[in-house]
Design goal:
The protein is an alpha+beta fold. It is about 35% helix and about 10% strand.
């Protein structure tokens, strides 16, 4: 483990035990699979495709959205991403990513049913 992430060692061990297939199987929600192509923590080509296959196998609605030049944290990365870059407070989550995520989430929310009109007396 990189020294920069030593404080998160327990979390890293725990997250590595999570089964993506079990998570998908345990949910009926649609999936929005976002992937930054500068992500070094997962394979940005293979891993999202595997998630899409799992979603299809479990008959889950899924959409894959790749993001050029974003890292694992969905922050713009003009260089090569690495753990020390995560600690740069000047780097913020990409606005286009947040906008597209928000739009997708809003599309998933079903409008509330109109209240029933009271019957006249």
């Amino acid at each position: 483990m990189p020294p920069e992430l030593a404080a998160q060692a327990l979390w890293v061990r725990e997250i590595l035990q999570v089964s993506p297939e079990a998570l998908i199987a345990g949910s009926e929600s649609p999936l929005w699979i976002a992937q930054g192509n500068k992500d070094f923590e997962v394979d940005p080509n293979r891993d999202p495709q595997e998630l899409m296959k799992l979603a299809k196998r479990r008959k889950r609605k899924a959409e894959l959205k790749p993001f050029a030049d974003l890292d694992h944290l969905f922050k713009p990365e003009p260089e090569n991403s690495n753990p020390s870059r995560y600690l740069d407070a000047a780097r913020t989550v990409d606005h286009a990513f947040l906008s597209q995520l928000t739009t997708w989430l809003q599309g998933q929310v079903k409008p509330a049913a109109a209240p029933a009109k009271p019957r006249g007396k």
